[in-house]
Amino acid sequence: MHRDYRSYSREELLREEEELKKEYERFRAMNLSLTMTRGGPCREQVDLSEGMLQVIDSGAKCFSGKTDIRNYGMLDGIPEMKQIFADLLHVMPENVICGGNSSLNMMYDAISRAMVFGTAPGFVPWSKQRELKFLCPVPGYDRHFAICEVFGIKMIPIEMTSAGPDMHEVREYAENDPTVKGIWCVPKYSNPDGTVYSPETVRAFASLRPAARDFRIFWDNAYCVHDLYEEIPLTDIFAECRSVGAKNMVYEFASTSKISFPGSGVACLVADEADILWAKKLLSFQTIGPDKINQKRHAAFFRTADGIRAHMKKHAEILRPKFETVEATLDRELEGRGIADFSRPRGGYFISFNQTIGSVRRAVALTADAGVALTPAGSAFPYHEDPYDRNVRIAPTFPSIEDLKTACELFSVAVRIAACERLLGMN
Amino acid sequence: MHRDYRSYSREELLREEEELKKEYERFRAMNLSLTMTRGGPCREQVDLSEGMLQVIDSGAKCFSGKTDIRNYGMLDGIPEMKQIFADLLHVMPENVICGGNSSLNMMYDAISRAMVFGTAPGFVPWSKQRELKFLCPVPGYDRHFAICEVFGIKMIPIEMTSAGPDMHEVREYAENDPTVKGIWCVPKYSNPDGTVYSPETVRAFASLRPAARDFRIFWDNAYCVHDLYEEIPLTDIFAECRSVGAKNMVYEFASTSKISFPGSGVACLVADEADILWAKKLLSFQTIGPDKINQKRHAAFFRTADGIRAHMKKHAEILRPKFETVEATLDRELEGRGIADFSRPRGGYFISFNQTIGSVRRAVALTADAGVALTPAGSAFPYHEDPYDRNVRIAPTFPSIEDLKTACELFSVAVRIAACERLLGMN
Fold it and tell me: Exposure winner among B45, B88, B150, B152, fewest CB in 10 A?
């Protein structure tokens, strides 16, 4: 436990800064080249699915029932894969569309369809409406926000609480402003905070009565089975919607990108019947079908949702020590200094770091200059605008434990330098 | 050689019709269930790529240079696959984006991007323009026309000649009407006629000076290496464009759907530098990258463009007798009757059948009633409007030779019945 910087005298701060700069130079001299930017699985995780490369090794195995899946067709994917996603997400297979390798692409396409064709037959396409807004819980996922930005959808930040987005704010906007068309949610192990939405939050979502009839909740369940410790259940949003009679309000997304291969997984869209019908109708103009052999690889390798759950325990074994290394290193270097805190997630891919004293941009720049890349500060906010210059997302999954330790030590030094400078009025 | 129906007396026609109806009932009694609808490879063709299911069987083989292709990244595909497409299509790899399994999806996305974002930075999106038109050589590919229809792009039919689209018509429209934004072309073994555009036609395309600066030629080179007999070269459109200084006018598409696996191939977009940059920029919001392991499978299995060319000779050996069966059967049944003709393509996937006497809809319906599905008459025309009720596309690739013979015999009977009825003034 260190002493709080805010109790330091000016001289103490100057001395501290001088010491830290020397330490920083020692890191620079190491010529590091590390990255903790994106949430990519490491080689050992990817190796866990080695068997998937061999499981479909003949044409005879390329059948789904009597259908030769090497050929065209099956717009919404093979039944085996739909069943697995349905079981994982507690929905019915007929509510699932299995697509290609990217859930991001399915989210982009869902927005694109809403823009050009509307969310349902007869609805005015979003692009023909006067103004469009999306609610964006912050900190959040930069690629969600980028989709809004490229489509010209205005983003409204919503504060995250420990139970999920501030539902009072969400309700205020969604129920009173018909130009609010949607909200981005990562309901389990939110990116980057690692928050699991509470049952009350999920229920509050199901109970929303949006002013816009073409409002959709984008429920990006990217980390649905990505527990690091015990399995933490997420309340089922579709079940909650059914119980209050809400329909066609949720698009759920998931994928095996962080289960099998990040570049060669299978993604899915889950929605109510009418939403699925409309998506499939429009999809039929776009493609003849997804890569079904790859879906079959997944179905044959994992067999069931339980097969995936068992597989994820192996991922967790690799990832737990990495998360714990980051947490322990940051604790050791920063605890008690009164300049920072960070999330201690029970799953997902990120640790959300807050330089509470507000000069994280400087800390990230110093860290980068010494050879360790972090996600640019501000990335977790719409338009990259972090109002408090505070948040950065740490992705502990890809580097080795050794490298993580070094990177976090360097980062801690950078955070302390930036804090000294801030307290000295230099930034 | 049969006698021309048009020389039959009324009594002769009635007698002929009566005989044909008996023959037709014999076919109906066979309870056939065959399809010659879509251009799908048959099982034997798909089996040719069996080795592709085994070629990448370990993580160690999942590398492109030093990059682990199982992980995220490489937005425009792996270099090996870009090189193969570049060699096949006589372009540079930097002009190639390798995508997922569907060139149709890449075409749809190209239109979608133009609709929402415009064809280049600063250009007005198509969807914000007053009116949009596409030129559609007819007969053509129904899925091209369907994309126009769903996006509300008005289609103008252009007559096909034996050298490609009527370039006088194309020039008239494209160079004088700024609402004409594009044209669909299948330049080699056009769907369904099997026409290879002549060097003069390709040059005329390159020399177009469209009134719309955001005009694009959609060059769907679906059958670029799909020769049934000798290799027939297609004049290179990008080379011709370069030689006359035309830039950013062509989007070329190709895929391995009819080379490896129809549902699990690799598709590509080829374009000039600025068009590629813009596409990649927008693509970066849509996805993190395509399925690179599947691209690697293709690169490892085929190795080079020549590897693909050699592979296509095996396809041709399977397909040639099928095309010849259709041609021989139709010749035997219909030649000289003065009621029909059909294309005799040197490659591609279709035979274009014209019931010159103009009652093909009736013939297709009769054929379907007896258990043989053909593409609905009119499908090869925008809005399904065949002005002469004449054309139907026959896809000989999927059924067995035996089945093709039966199907064509039945179809010939149906064509003759429909012709008799037409000549008798009954339809």
Answer: B152
CA distance A322 to A328: 10
Q: Find tokens 């009527």 and name the residue.
A: B166
User: Which residue's structure tokens are 């974002």?
Assistant: B117
Q: Tokens 């192996």 appear where?
A: A314
In a mutational test of the A interface, the residue from B287, B294, B297, B375 whose CB has the highest number of chain A CBs within 10 Å is: B287
- Flag whether residue A53 sits within 8 Å of chain B, measured between CB atoms: yes
Phi-psi region of B16 (alpha: psi -120 to 50; beta: other; left: phi over 0): alpha
Whole-angstrom Cα distance, residue B126 to residue B114?
Answer: 6
Closest residue in B to A150 (Cα–Cα): B285
| A64 vs B contacts (CB less than 8 Å) | none
Closest residue by Cα to residue B274 from B151, B128, B127, B118: B118
pLDDT in tens, B175-219: 999 999 999 999 999 999 999 999 999 999 999 999 999 999 999
A105: which chain B residues are within 8 Å (Cβ-Cβ)?
286-287
Structure tokens at B200: 């003069």
SS3 A173: helix
3-state per-residue secondary structure call for A73-132: CCCCCCHHHHHHHHHHHCCCHHHEEECCCCHHHHHHHHHHHHHHHCCCCCCCCHHHCCCC
Given an 8 Å threshold on Cβ–Cβ distance, is B101 in contact with A38? Answer: no
Q: Quote the tokens at residue A298.
A: 């997944």
The per-residue pLDDT for range A152-199, each reduced to its tens digit, is 999 999 999 999 999 999 999 999 999 999 999 999 999 999 999 999
A74 touching B, CB under 8 A? yes
Neighbour-count burial for A249-269, b at 16+ CB within 10 Å, e otherwise: bbbbbbbbbbbbbbbbbbbbb
Contacts of residue A196, Cβ cutoff 8 Å, sequence gap at least 6? A164, A187, A188, A189, A190, A232, A234, A346, A347
**A107 in contact with B at a CB cutoff of 8 Å?**
no
Q: Which of residues 158-217 of A touch B (CB under 8 A)?
A: none
Distance CA B12, CA B143 (A): 42
Domains defined for chain A, CATH in brackets: 5-45+309-423 (3.90.1150.10), 73-303 (3.40.640.10)
Report CB contact under 8 Å: A104, B292.
no
- Residue B315: both structure tokens together: 């396809």
319-378 of B, contacting A, C-beta below 8 A: none
CA distance B297 to chain A (A): 10
> Do A102 and A255 meet the contact criterion of CB atoms below 8 Å apart?
yes
Instruction: Say whether A127 and B116 touch across the interface (CB within 8 A).
Output: yes
**Whether complex ipTM tops 0.90:** yes
Structure tokens at A195: 């928050």
